[in-house]
Design brief:
CATH superfamily of the largest domain: Metalloenzyme, LuxS/M16 peptidase-like
CATH class of the largest domain: Alpha Beta
Radius of gyration: 28 Å
Distance between the termini: 80 Å
CATH architecture of the largest domain: 2-Layer Sandwich
Structural class: alpha+beta
Low-confidence stretches: 1-5, 440-462
Strand order of the largest sheet: 1-2-3-7-4-6-5
Number of helices: 32
Helix content: 40-55%
CATH topology of the largest domain: Cytochrome Bc1 Complex, Chain A, domain 1
Length: 939
């Protein structure tokens, strides 16, 4: 007789697991080797988030090896003896097959590695992370190829004025403390850091007593602890104490200023004030000040009122560092064309003077506290967000800092805010930086003498919203391809293009592949006015995911009307309605903790809004949405301000390599009458300028209608309650029926053509190879086409393009192939990458080699199996939150596929054969006929 009784397992303490505390459903344990473990169960979806945080960041670096922490983060994906990409069982090889969402990030105080996976794969995550804690291969060949990848990541950042300002601001504000150094490192250190230095860093900081394991989601507590102990328990703690950072930044003794002068779009101003570390009583009034100052996205905020409403700036923001050591409070803005930088600086400093001398309003502070509290509720509804928040808390102080945060924020008074503004926001404690586009140097302006006390100075009259006199449309030119220096020696090319090692196959449980059963869980009803409503109950989450799609995109205005009309309708909706003015709308959204909750997105076919909100606010939110949709004011004065903002955005886009590449490319690929054609930036600015309030109201009446509209509601609400609220608000809404969508066919070029756009002062260039394709979401071969594209270039690490151009050749930080918009067909299929301008020809050469081989041989059975596993697993991971489910439900219904399609997606991916994928590839990919566009500072 077989004994089926399980042997009792030893208690946790006897195997070296000690419980430390439990607060708000977060449980802390510590292993004998010093590893801290935080567990928080959430069974709302069969998904887990596994995160490992190491308390090492750029604050642990010094001159000569800045960026070492970040470089080492890259090296942790290069393999161990047990999990080696050369043997097909590297971390990327395995996680790809299960559809994981995984990555790593480095910041001042920490390095984090995380995986979001179907709950069945918890064991794999623990095993992989424990293995790379102490068993990295750290090979010279990996260091050499990855260096140029990291360098291209650095170069991409250097393209953006904002990143240049941030880097310089910290470098000037901090002279002694290592926050002086950028996390990615200084270029020469990145290029020169030796493997031995990386190994020394690894052997100093990557130990269990310097790490925290965080697990959230659908798991069983005791089993998870034993699993973590099984893989981590035998790892020894560091042989020496973890080095302590003892450098303290001395008090600043006077205002510091800097300028960055180079080719660019619009002037910018950033200012930073030294503040306390996160674990300090001043953190909470400073955080409240951040809420109240706000940004250009929060129309009730002070920065919006003093910079955006006054038309001084197009964008504004503030950021409050919460770091292990004293950091910065940063305020910044991008100016409208024609406005002096000094005017923005003075406006910001004047607002700070008011906050230092006048208490903030009682209602203003109440809204900030409400937004903070509801933000926590919404974070808890998504296990991944909560895991990241716990990780950040560990890096700043410890996880209890997060648990106590809301109570301490709630205790903040108006006097506390005045005190910290007066303490930190003083002239001698600030650093101010200007970004000046090169041409501005021709007319230098005097530095302002404002010290935060006197009145705002006088400036010359400017006319915001007009194109700057020096505006120059990016010029598209034919590129001559010489072919010189593009080829590789035969032996090197053979290695670069060699077939990747076969991946060790991961067994996918039926619980992952069996598909979902949403049809039985989703209630659906179409109201008499044509509005389709879908409701799915997800009790206990305290939140609701909401998604709403209207058939009202650019397609419906691009032929016979101003193509900017749909965009302007979406932009103007939340800027005042019959019942609520613009400020009231913003204040209500802030009170709900969703300042962007009524920001409408406009694409080719839809006007949409989506948000995750606290369940108790749902009725108020729909009441607000109803009036905004049905009764917008579309006032001429507000429209004029929107024109100013959009002029600035479009001028700024002319300095972005990716934006100008696409803009030029779409004018080449499509005729002017086509929905995917894109006008020049100057023409777009002209269109925005030509629309008046009367045209907007007429456009709104025609475009914004319940007919063919889709609303998805998922979360902590009953079907009955949700439907009553919807019917009460929207039941009597009537509107016009939108027109049908028919995308015209486009003739593809008969041969490859090359074009270029030269933008000065860019460290990285964008390359796009593209042609129109007929693939649409409803096509029978849609899933086969997705699999064919996924194996080629969906992932920058494991795809064919990524393995050759990034991993082996080290030419790029990111390369992808993608179908841009498959809703109704006609959109581009593209290969996109960034490279150092010197490597453009080499990159194009390798991309073509990969494409040629793929088109000739097709997808391999192994690649197909891997990509099917990825698709099925990532589909499941994407449905881990109410918001994720709501978005998918609304999308499928909008496209006419219905909820039933949701339950068929996994099965359809699993049924794709190699022959089907190859047929789809050859039908939709025509790389020989793709047009190439290159944008950057060209050699």
């Amino acid at each position: 007789m077989v004994n089926t009784v399980k042997e009792p397992q030893p208690d946790l303490e006897s195997i070296g697991i000690r419980k430390v505390s439990e607060v708000k459903n977060v449980h802390e344990y510590v292993l004998d080797n010093g590893l801290k473990v935080l567990l928080m169960e959430n069974h709302s979806a069969p998904v887990i988030t596994f995160l490992v945080l190491y308390k090492v960041g750029s604050r642990n670096e010094g001159v000569g090896y800045t960026g070492a922490t970040h470089f080492l983060e890259h090296m942790l994906f290069k393999g161990t003896k047990k999990h080696n990409p050369d043997k097909g069982n590297g971390i990327d090889d395995l996680l790809t097959q299960i559809g994981a969402y995984w990555n790593a990030t480095t910041w001042f105080d920490r390095t984090s590695y995380f995986e979001v996976v179907p709950a069945e794969f918890l064991d794999m995550c623990v095993k992989l992370e424990a293995d790379r804690m102490r068993n990295l291969l750290l090979r010279q060949s990996d260091r050499d190829s990855e260096m140029s990848v990291v360098r291209n990541e650095l170069e991409r950042g250097e393209n953006y004025p904002e990143e240049a300002l941030e880097k310089e601001l910290y470098a000037v504000a901090f002279r002694e403390h290592p926050y002086h150094h950028p996390t990615i490192g200084w270029r020469s250190d990145v290029e020169g850091v030796a493997l031995d230095r990386l190994r020394e860093f690894y052997d100093t900081f990557y130990y269990p007593n310097n790490a925290t394991v965080i697990l959230l989601g659908d798991f069983e507590h005791q089993s998870a602890l034993r699993l973590i102990h099984k893989h981590y328990g035998s790892i020894k703690p560091s042989p020496a104490p973890i080095p302590h950072v003892y450098t303290v930044e001395p008090p600043q003794e006077g205002e510091r200023r800097f300028e960055i002068v180079r080719a660019g779009d619009l002037p910018k101003v950033w200012m930073g004030f030294h503040i306390s570390e996160a674990d300090h009583e001043d953190t909470y009034p400073l955080a409240a000040a951040r809420h109240i100052l706000g940004s250009s996205f929060e129309r009730s905020s002070r920065l919006y009122k003093c910079l955006i409403e006054t038309e001084i700036a197009a964008e504004a923001f503030c950021r409050h560092d919460e770091l292990r050591d004293p950091g910065l409070f940063i305020i910044g803005g991008t100016l409208n064309p024609g406005v002096p930088i000094e005017k923005a600086e003075t406006a910001i400093l004047e607002e700070l003077r008011k906050m230092a001398s006048e208490p903030v309003g009682e209602e203003e502070l109440r809204r900030a506290k409400s937004a903070n509290l509801k933000g926590t509720i919404l974070a808890k509804s998504d296990p991944s967000s909560m895991a990241f928040m716990l990780g950040e808390a560990e890096s700043k102080a410890d996880w209890m800092w997060l648990m106590n945060y809301d109570d301490k924020f709630e205790a903040v008074t108006a006097d506390d805010i005045m005190r910290v503004i007066g303490k930190y926001f003083i002239k001698t404690n600030r650093t101010i930086g200007y970004f000046k586009p090169q041409q501005m140097e021709d007319v230098p302006a005097p530095a302002p003498q404002y010290d935060g006390v006197d009145e705002m100075g006088e400036y010359a009259e400017e006319v915001p919203g007009q194109l700057p006199s020096e505006f120059k449309e990016p010029e598209v030119q034919t590129r001559k391809m010489s072919g010189e220096d593009a080829s590789y020696p035969a032996d090197e090319l053979e290695k670069l293009l060699a077939e990747a090692p076969k991946s060790v196959k991961v067994k996918i449980p039926k619980s992952v592949t069996s598909g979902s059963k949403f049809v039985d869980r989703v209630y659906q009803e179409t109201l008499p006015n044509g509005l389709t409503v879908m409701v799915m109950e997800n009790p206990g989450t305290e939140s609701i995911g909401f998604a709403f799609n209207l058939r009202a995109g650019r397609y419906f205005t691009c032929k016979d009307e101003n193509s900017a009309l749909a965009e302007l309708v979406g932009e103007m909706l939340p800027r005042g309605s019959k019942k609520y003015d613009k400020t009231q709308i913003a204040e209500m959204l802030e009170d709900m903790g969703i300042p962007g909750g009524l920001e409408f997105g406009v694409d080719n076919y839809r006007l949409s809004v989506a948000t995750n909100l606290v369940a108790s606010d749902f009725k108020t939110y729909l009441k607000l949405l109803d009036d905004v949709l049905r009764n917008p004011l579309m006032e001429e004065e507000e429209l004029r301000k929107v024109r100013v903002e959009w002029t600035a955005k479009l001028v700024e886009a002319t300095n972005n390599t990716r934006s100008v590449a696409w803009n030029g490319l779409k004018r080449i690929l499509y005729p002017e009458s086509h929905p995917f054609f894109e006008k020049t930036f100057a023409e777009q600015i002209g269109e925005f300028a030509s629309v008046n309030s009367e045209q907007l109201l007429a456009g709104h009446k025609r475009l914004v209608s319940p007919q063919s509209a889709v609303m998805a509601i998922v979360g902590d609400i009953t079907v009955e309650e949700a439907m009553k609220i919807v019917k009460d608000q929207f039941g009597d809404w009537i509107g016009e029926k939108p027109g049908a969508i028919a995308i015209p066919d486009v003739t593809i070029a008969d041969t490859r053509k090359y074009f270029e756009i030269n933008l000065p002062d860019k460290s990285s260039a964008d390359i796009i190879l593209s042609h129109p394709t007929s693939l649409k979401r409803s096509a029978k071969d849609f899933y086969a086409a997705r699999m064919a594209n996924a194996a080629l270039g969906q992932d920058t690490i494991t795809s064919r393009l990524g393995q050759v151009v990034r991993d082996r050749a080290g030419l790029t930080y990111g390369i992808h192939s993608v179908f841009s918009d498959t809703a109704f067909g006609g959109a581009p299929w593209s290969v996109m990458l960034t490279v150092n301008p010197k490597n453009i020809d080499k990159a194009l050469f390798l991309v073509d080699k990969v494409l040629d081989e793929y088109m000739e041989r097709g997808i391999s059975e192994e690649e197909l199996s891997r990509e099917i596993g990825r698709a099925v697993g990532s589909f499941k991971v994407g449905l881990a939150s109410s918001m994720g489910i709501a978005r998918v439900l609304a999308e499928l219904e909008f496209l006419g596929l219905g909820t039933a399609e949701l339950d068929k997606i996994s099965k359809k991916y699993l049924s794709v054969t190699k022959a089907q994928a190859d047929d789809a590839m050859r039908k939709y990919f025509q790389p020989k006929n793709a047009t190439a566009m290159i944008a950057g500072t060209l050699p």
